[in-house]
Every structure is written in structure tokens, then in C-alpha cells.
Amino acid sequence: MNNHSFSTLHFINRELSWLEFNGRVLEEAQDTNNPLFERLKFLSIVGSNLDEFFMIRVASLQDQVNANIVKADPSDLTPNEQIERISARTHKLVVDMYNCYNRSLINSLKKENIFFIKPKDLTTIQLDFIRDYYDNNIFPVLTPMVIDKNQPFPLVLNKTLNIALLLQDTTNVNPIFGTIQVPSVLNRFVEIPSSESKKSFILLEEIIKLKLTTLFGNHKIIATGCYRIIRNADLDVDEDESEDLLTAVQLSLKQRKWGSAIRLEIEHGLNPLLLKLLEEELEISAEAEYKISGPIDLTFLMKLSGLKGYDSLRYEPIKPNAYTTLLDNDDIFKSISNQDILLHHPYDSFDMVVALVKKAAEDPDVLAIKQTLYRVSGNSPIVEALAQAADNGKQVTVLLELKARFDEQNNITWAKKLETAGCHVIYGLVGLKAHCKILLIVRREEGFIKRYVHLGTGNYNDITAKLYTDLGLLTANPYFGADASAIFNTLSGCSSPSHLYKLTLAPIGLRKKFLDLIQKETEYAKLGKQARIIAKLNSLVDTEIIEALYNASTAGVTIDLIVRGICCLRPKIPLISERITVRSIVGRFLEHSRIYYFYGDGEEAIYLSSADLMKRNLDRRVELLFPVEDPTAREKVMNVLALALQDTTKARVLNSDATYSKINKRGKEIINSQEILLSPYARENALDEVVPTRTEFVPIISYRRN
Question: In the CATH scheme, what is the code of domain 31-313?
Fold first, then answer.
């Protein structure tokens, strides 16, 4: 298939591409057009994103360096070179984060009469309040530690905020080290008395610093400073050696707390002796240190953004299409039988999916429910409904992926609950993560068996469904039903599907399917026919897919990619990717849906999928690709692509040098795709408002207002 030879110059490094994505999230925190409390959220997300990035991606690279692996990635960077470039980019990102916090957000909060008080500015009344608060709430949970010949350096927990101290006592000539963890069980910021028109807060670590003499009374405190470490949390569960995957995952979760230190954040101006001791004890290099000019760990801003009484500083609450006619219908199944239903969350309510599972749990004609769960909420109504279904005597099978990163503990809890209720729980597959999103309901109707299927691009999570954009298809199409049954038999280990009518499954045939679709478009272009590919996804990393897209571009295929996060394809390279554009949309909602469109010489094919174009999705996960065939549903998907391709507000365009640029709005209509989709009028009149049009040579999707 590959007609050209591609060099390392044609690929963008995966990790650096991800950092650019996090930079786009930071732009949302910097954007004064966004409501103030939403900007706080965005800055919090930048911080938590970085934590996870270092815990997993940088940790993996460090493991490779430690193992003396020098193999370069497709962009020709060795693990060590990647770490060096990541460090340089992240240091700049952290500076930008704290410039945003110190120079913009703090001042904006002051204008709203919200203040963070420094210790030197506390009034007598505030000091009295802090003394009582400390004695009653903080002191009982503190554990001060002094490190000397009798007490080794403690195991500092991952992601915890700590205060380091340099102490002097009468028995030691040399200063000794002390440390205390800022309790994560207490609120990071404490409201203190102020005038009625103001809200004043002080950070927990500032209160503890004021009271350190109550903890280290026998020592003279020479210097103090906050620090925080990020540890390697890249879990490697040995499934082949473990008879009980549940036990193996639980054990690895405990190990996550104590992985080697990958990143060290220190308060700006930390005493050099304290810093040297931390470097030695944590075995961390200067390149992995980040001097912080402000509060370490800004994730507390997420909680601050939830302060009551400030609705004007947030986005207006969304009013999703509730599909009330369907929800109120005594027979949801009849509604789905009448026509395939395409849901676009959060613009369409996720309640429709929850209602379907609840109805199935109660319906005496439903015989069985089978569902995959990857990430579910902490109080999941879907899991409750599945447990109720089992209690009602229905056969319930749940494939619950225990290895869903950072949701392992939550999933373990649900697995035990489902088993107790009588559900048959499958704990994922050896060597593969089950990432597909599929629900099958088997129902007896008029003496026959009928199957109802839900397929989605996102998780069965009622919380994230309000924050992520995802697409889901509800269908009673018998071919989809037959495929769903075959896939669940495969997941339970009973068989391998010999034939699927509509669905394509990874890791069995999904890679080939994508390559065939791209190749078919390439052949049309070579024959001088119209050829176009549009893909909306989260990440584009797979080298073979990228090379196929390059070949398609050189053959004359017009390719528009809407890639929210990582993109290793380099667009607009002369003679290689001149016909490829890449854009990223970062806005109020996390763009999460995966859509794949192929013009097909006028026989347009539209697919939705749980899979991104990454090696892990195509080769190491169970994923699904499914076609959208209903005319109304197809038009709705085209509307989503139309708006995304013409967004001039939240979209950024990827340049050939791997940087991103804002859209030049000159002469263009101001289009914010997410805001338009939020409009009830736009949703109700979608087919009138947004229509696909064609030109003589290349199919173009355009957005049009009446």
C-alpha cells in the first residue's frame, strides 16, 4: 500500500504533541471571554493533566532510559531526548500557568471581592479564627517527622503537598531535616472572617506554616518550604502470572503510591540545603525540578470554582434535548423499533440511555442484558439498574474493564456490587483492554426474540456525559443485533466471530478496515474522481495509518482531520501532505466523539467508533467501528462535522512546524461550534440550519444560517 518512503521529518513526537494540547487548554484559562470560574477550572485541568502525563508517559520514558533503551520514536527522538524536550516545554508551560494565576486570575477574583490573604496581611480577628481552626481541625491530623540517624527519610506519598523544614537542635551541630504532609483530607483553602461584601480565604499550608512551632517546639526552625512529588504510576499488571485479575489490580494500585519520583515541585526560593537533601533522598535530577511561584498544585481551583452564590461567573446551565416524547413513551422499545435514534451528548440528554437500561431492568419481556463498562461514575444509575435487573431474574452479563487507568478502584467496587447482585461479571480480557461501548438488550416480542442495541463513542458515565461530546446510536436493526450477540460471545471467551454484518472489531479487523477505506479513496483520486476523507477523533498516532493518509494526499484526496489532542501527522508538507488540514477544538466540552467519513465516489460512508487511530486502539484493545445508515442520523453526524470544520472561535490549526495557530477570522462569520449546538433552536432545526453541499470537484461540507 505504501507508495512513498517517509522520513522522521514527517512525524511529530507524540509527547510534545500532547503538551501542545495541554497548552491549548491553558489558552482557555487565559481567555478573558470565558467566565471567571470556568477559567479556574481550565487551569485546574492543566495541572491535573500534567500530573497524569508525568505519572504515565514521562514515567514510561524514564523506565526506558533506566533500561538503556536508545531506540528512537518515529520522529527520531530517543527516550532521553524526549525527556529533555518535554522538560523544556513543561517548564515554559508551568511559567505560563502561574503567570495566568498570579497576574490575571487572582486580580479578577479580587474584582469579585474574593481574596486569598497572605499571613502578613491577617487581621487580629482573622488570626484568632485561624488559631481556633488550627487547634480544632488541623492539629489532630498532622504527623510531623524529623529525619535523623534513628529515623530514615519517609516514603512521601504521590501527589501530596508537603512542607520541608531545616531544623536545629541542641544535640546536633548540623541542621536536620523535618517534613510534614499537608492533610489531603481537609479543604485546601479555608474561609476566614471578613466584611459582608467580601470572601476571604487562606491556604491550608499557610496556616500550618504559621503554627510550626507547635509541632517542632524543641527545634529551632531555620527554613521552610513546600514541595510535592509526582511518582511513576505506570502500572504493569502481570495478567499471565495472576490467577485473579481483581487481586492483581488491587495490589498494583497500592504500588502506585510508591513508584520512583519523576517530578519535583518546590516553592520558589526554597533553602538550597533543603533542596539538596530532597534531590539526594528522592534521587531526582535538576531537570525534573520545577520552581513554583505561587501555590503548588493548582487543582484546588476546581473546588474553588464550585463556590455557591456565583452563578454569573460560570457558564449558563445546559438545557439538553430531553427526548421527552421518547422518555414518556410507555414503550421505549417501540420508539427505537420505529427508527434508529442518534444521540449527541451533552446536547442530547444521556437520560435516554439510562432510561433504556432502567426500562429493560423492569420489563418482564426482557430476558437478558449485556453491557460493557469502562469508566462509570461513582454513583452510577446504570450499574444500579443492572443490579436491579439481575435481582428481577434477568440474565445480566457485564464486561467491566478493571484496567481502565485511574478508574481501577471505582471499577473494583462496582464489580463486587454487580457480582453480589447476581450479575455475571467478566473482568476484561488477558492482554487486551475492552474499550468498546456496547449495550445489548434481548427481549421477547410476540413469541419471537428481538434485540436492541446501543453503540457509543463514549463511556456509560452519566457524569462525563454532561462534560464530553459523544455520539450514541440506538437501533433495533437485526444485523446490528446479531453482531452484538456475536461480539459478546467473543468477549466472554466462547467463540470468535466468523462473520460480522455491520460492525468491525479490533484487534481482529479494524486496522485493515481503516486502511482499506483510505486505500479505496486513494484509488478514486488516482482515477481523477472526487475523493475526500474527514475524521474527527481524539488522537492520531499510528504510523501505518498516517503513511496511508500521506499516500492518499499525494494521490489527490482532500483530507480534513479534527484531532482534539495528540496528532503525530505533520500537515502541509510539500508533495506529502499538502491536501491535509488538521484542526483541534478545545472548549467548554471535551471533544470526545470519533467520526470517520469517506466520500466513496458519492456512496458516502459514515462511521462512528470507540477507537482513536493509535496502535493501542487498533492492536491492543477491543474496539468497535459501526456505520450510521439511517438518513436522519447521517445528516445529524454531517452537521457535527460541518460545524467543527468551520469553527472560528475555539478551533486551532496545526502548522507543519507542529505549532498551532488561531483561525484568521477576517471576513469570516464568528462560529463557536459548541455554542451553536447548545442552542435549542439549532438542535431542533438542525436539518434546516446546517446542510451538506457539494461542488463540482470536491465534496465540501458547509455551515449556513437562514
Answer: 3.30.1840.10
Same CATH fold, 506-701 and 324-501? yes
Q: Say if residue 683's pLDDT is above 50.
A: no
- Angle made by CA atoms 307, 130, 267, in degrees to the nearest 5: 75
Burial of 389 (0-12, 13-18, 19+ CB in 10 A): buried
Supply the pLDDT for residue 170: 72
CATH superfamily for domain 506-701:
Endonuclease Chain A (3.30.870.10)
- Give per-residue pLDDT as tens, 186-238: 999 999 999 878 999 999 999 999 999 989 878 899 999 999 999 988 755 44
Architecture of domain 324-501: 2-Layer Sandwich (3.30)
Looking at the annotation, which residues are catalytic? 435
Given phi > 0 = left and psi -120 to 50 = alpha, else beta, which region is 574?
Answer: beta
For 242-251, how does the pLDDT look when each residue is reduced to its tens digit (9 = 90+)? 445 456 555 5
Three-state DSSP at 502 gives coil
The answer to whether the CB of 169 falls within 8 A of the CB of 222 is no
For residue 12, the SS3 value is: coil
Domain boundaries, the chain: 31-313, 324-501, 506-701
Q: When comparing pLDDT for 496 and 132, which is higher?
A: 132
Sign for the pseudo-dihedral over CA of 609, 615, 618, 620: negative
CA-nearest of 352, 354, 404, 364 to 384 is 354
Q: CA-based angle 666:669:670, to the nearest 5?
A: 95
Distance CA 402, CA 411 (A): 6
pLDDT at 237: 45
Distance of CA 152 to the CA centre of its chain: 38
pLDDT at position 240 is 43
CA–CA gap between residue 536 and residue 456 (Å, rounded): 14
